[in-house]
Design goal:
Shape of chain A: globular
Structural class of chain A: alpha+beta
Distance between the termini of chain A: 90 Å
Radius of gyration of chain B: 24 Å
Strand content of chain B: under 5%
Strand order of the largest sheet of chain A: 2-1-3-15-6
Order of helices and strands of chain B: HHHHHHHHHHHHHH
Radius of gyration of chain A: 27 Å
Largest interface: A-B, 68 and 62 residues
Number of helices of chain B: 14
Helix content of chain B: 55-70%
Oligomer: heterodimer
Chain lengths: ~525, ~290
């Protein structure tokens, strides 16, 4: 019986230990843990770049069944084509929904990984502030010649404190906003679309009226993707913060006065128009319902027009009417698109899709070399984007198609994350897309980059007015969506909004933006 | 005057309303899951769709392997988790209920602290990944849920209140070891509390998706709830970024409304079945402190 007693003591103490670990996470072991582990498991990075090294690539994507297969194929290819680099990759996709939780934990706990996708809308600024990303200037100069070849002029927006933290994907440099129309209805009523040459969204009104009167059950203009949102900001403003902006419509090119974007005459004009349309019943009343997808309404045959971002086609002149391939696909019927505004080269766009290198990378040089390959090597890029030829795709007339009898769901590797990495102009197009898509991009880019925003490269640091920004956001919540969707009368509510913003410290934000902008201009000789 | 006790009609009315409030959403989810997608797009959600379609379930059947696997993971984790957790929780609670246990006070304070303050996400993550190295294993889904401070307290109170110390004394005078006492005397007397806490734990294991999110990378180990949650979160996330990403190459594929609801229906399954079997134990009731009614 004695062994039992002894055994029970051990067993109970064991259980107690387990229980202690499971109940509470004493915080004593967190500080310093990350550092010490990093140091112990680190090892020296090879100076000559000849020791084998695995680059862990972190990016948002739904997990693919054949992830490992593709990863192995990429490694075989890298080994064969670039034996000097001696590098392998590990693909570490993270679900979109889990992205912020997981990456935050990875960064905070010092997990080892090398490249990571980042963007201003995914917390780029916070990642830089936290010190999770490495400055890239030197690495880029040494190991990124092919990145520099296409992206050299576009680095400024991703700089913080004078250092570069992200590498922009080489792709279209902006967008175009305009109107999508259901072609069947346009033909039925023989609408004259040449009026849009003026670039004014107002020209839509008579058509909406006709549809409203003759087509019960069809919403003339489906929202959200508010006309104001899609059309106002890019067409009229160089945006700085949540309300600070330069009004570039009808102002001199050397005018750098920061104003409140909600106070411009054009905003009032468009808000009044939206409100009028809302009252006339041209707009859907449920525009503010969360999760509402305007395209689905068109797909269900309940909508005629939609204002939003356009497909980039060969001809992107304002007012030119063309069939929209992507729009038609999404709506399940033929859709026309008419661009009314083409973006200027904006700071925000350049930080919307980037690759960065993690502070925890053991060999940032090799990570940069790999990133560079994505800007140079079509085969590697294709492997990453489309998988293995024959298994995950076949080439049909130079376009990517699914192998016979396969669908996106069962092919094992199918995703649309081409926009996350590398030089897009090297990519294949998918069957159904315009085979000249990337030539169109080139043309479009020439158009956009020829018209840079007055403040291209200026990055506003919101830190000094952080509290004001939050209060302003709260004030905006009460009015902005209502005004944009046309449900609030702007004559009555816009002054109220401006007053609330003022109370929340709008003037301080604008003054701060002006101060930073002037300093930037002085430093950059603008 | 009849001596038969009659339930007050008001109570019946209130309880009926309450039951309805529980059932109606359930019914709505069921109906959307078998409604024709086009109808949902056109008329929104309705309690009786004009057109039925089982497309959503057929679609899920195509994905059956993934779902069945996730089902398996969830069931395995729940069963093992509940058994082990009940054992550990009751062992801890029992020790704490014993007046002759020297660390009683210290342990109580320790438990109390875990109830009041959490270590935060990061230390929690570090303990399991750096100290226990359980990430990407089923253990990562089981261990974090093993002990809840509140459950321990409920059990301790039960043991203190319903098991007279003299019972333990007499068992030990008769020669029963600690284990014998625990398994043969205490456990049979504690079935109500076991059933109650067991249900709590079952629900928390079954509904848990966050641990999968944090620790599991391997698709084969995803739990059912995480699979469901993932589908929903990805959809809403993709929708919210569709415009921000600026890129026209970013195509958004949305899971259909009815498929989401069908997944919800599938995930509810076993839990609905568990409850009736445990229900009889609830009649007796439990108390956390003070006097039991």
């Amino acid at each position: 019986m004695k062994w039992l007693k002894k055994g029970s003591v051990i067993l109970s103490s064991l259980m107690l230990t387990v229980a202690m670990t499971a109940t509470g996470c004493s915080s004593s072991n967190n500080s310093g843990n990350a550092n010490s582990l990093q140091a112990s498991s680190g090892g020296d990075s090879a100076a000559g770049g000849l020791k084998p090294y695995e680059v862990v690539m972190v990016f948002p994507d739904a997990p693919q069944k054949d992830n490992e297969l593709v990863q192995n194929a990429m490694n075989d290819y890298l080994k064969k084509t670039y034996p000097d680099m001696n590098v392998t990759v590990k693909l570490n996709p993270i679900d979109w929904g889990a992205w912020s939780d997981k990456t935050n934990l990875m960064m905070a706990s010092g997990d080892k990984f090398d490249t990571i996708f980042t963007a201003d809308w995914l917390g780029f600024q916070q990642e830089v502030t936290k010190g999770a990303l490495l400055p890239l200037d030197d690495l880029l100069a040494k190991y990124g010649p092919d990145i520099e070849a296409v992206e050299k002029d576009y680095h400024d927006p991703a700089k913080r404190g004078g250092k570069l933290y992200g590498i922009h994907t080489h792709q279209e440099l902006g967008g175009a906003q305009g109107i999508y129309l259901d072609k069947a209805l346009v033909d039925k009523y023989k609408f004259d679309l040449s009026a849009f040459k003026s670039g004014k969204v107002e020209e839509l009104e008579p058509m909406l009226k006709t549809i409203k009167e003759n087509e019960p059950g069809i919403t003339p203009l489906v929202m959200p993707s508010y006309p104001l949102d899609a059309y106002y900001s890019s067409g009229t403003l160089d945006q700085i913060g949540n309300l600070a902006a330069l009004n570039v419509k009808d102002t001199a090119p050397d005018d750098f006065t920061v104003t409140n974007m909600y106070s411009t005459p054009r905003f009032m004009e468009l808000a009044k128009m939206t409100n009028k349309w809302f009252k006339a019943g041209y707009l859907n009343k449920d525009a503010l319902t969360p999760g509402l997808d305007a395209w689905k309404k068109i797909q269900a045959g309940q909508g005629f027009a939609l204002v939003g971002d356009m497909d980039i086609l060969a001809n992107m002149e304002i007012g030119s009417v063309s069939k929209s391939p992507n729009g038609s696909l999404k709506a399940g019927r033929e859709m026309l698109q008419i661009p009314l505004n083409v973006d200027r080269l904006q700071t925000g766009k350049m930080t919307a899709t980037m690759q960065a290198i993690s502070k925890t990378s053991k060999d940032p040089e090799r990570a940069m070399m790999l990133l560079n390959l994505f800007f140079k090597d079509k085969n590697l890029l294709t492997l990453f984007n489309f998988g293995i030829e024959g298994t995950h795709y076949v080439l049909k007339d130079g376009q990517i198609a699914l192998p016979d009898g396969k669908t996106n769901n069962d092919v094992g590797f199918y995703h649309d994350i081409m926009w996350q990495i590398g030089n897009q102009m090297l990519n294949y197009t998918r069957v159904g897309e315009d085979p000249n898509k990337y030539q169109n991009y080139e043309k479009f880019n020439a158009l956009v980059s020829g018209n840079p925003s007055r403040i291209f490269g200026f990055v506003f640091d919101p830190e000094p007015v952080k509290n004001e920004m939050i209060t302003i956001d709260n004030a905006n919540k009460a009015f902005v969506d209502g005004i944009k969707s046309g449900q609030l009368d702007p004559e009555e509510n816009l002054p109220k909004l401006l007053e609330k913003q003022k109370a929340a410290g709008a003037d301080k934000v604008i003054a701060e933006a002006q101060k930073q902008l002037d300093a930037w201009r002085a430093a950059n000789g603008k | 005057m009849s001596t038969q006790k009659r339930t007050h009609p008001l109570i019946i009315a209130v309880l009926s309303l309450f039951s309805l409030a529980c059932l109606i959403p359930f019914w709505l989810v069921l109906m959307i899951s078998i409604a024709d997608e086009k109808e949902v797009l056109k008329h929104g959600y309705s309690f009786w769709p004009q057109k039925f379609s089982f497309v959503a379930y057929q679609f899920l059947a195509q994905d059956a392997e993934k779902i069945l696997r996730a089902y398996g993971v969830s069931i395995f984790v729940t069963v093992i988790g509940v058994v082990v957790s009940l054992f550990v929780t009751s062992a801890m609670a029992f020790s704490m209920s014993r007046k002759d246990f020297p660390l009683r006070g210290a342990l109580s304070i320790y438990i109390l602290i875990t109830m009041l303050f959490s270590g935060g996400l990061l230390p929690w993550y570090l303990v399991y990944t750096r100290f226990l190295h359980v990430q990407d294993t089923l253990l990562a889904l089981i261990i974090p849920g093993l002990i809840g401070g509140f459950n321990v307290i409920i059990m301790r109170t039960f043991f203190t209140n319903s098991i007279p110390p003299s019972l333990i004394d007499s068992a030990q005078i008769d020669g029963a070891s600690e284990y014998r006492t625990y398994f043969s005397i205490i456990l049979p007397l504690s079935l109500p509390v076991m059933a109650t806490i067991g249900l709590f734990i079952t629900v928390s294991y079954w509904n848990d998706w966050f641990t999968s999110l944090v620790f599991i990378q391997n698709e084969k180990l995803f739990s059912l709830q995480y699979l469901l949650n993932k589908t929903l979160m990805n959809a809403s996330f993709l929708q919210s970024i569709a415009n921000k990403a600026y890129s026209s190459t970013a195509q958004v594929t949305q899971p259909l409304e009815s498929i989401r609801m069908a997944m919800a229906m599938i995930a509810i399954g076993p839990l609905v079945l568990v409850f009736p079997f445990l229900q009889k134990y609830f009649v007796k009731g439990l108390t956390v402190g003070a006097v039991k009614g």
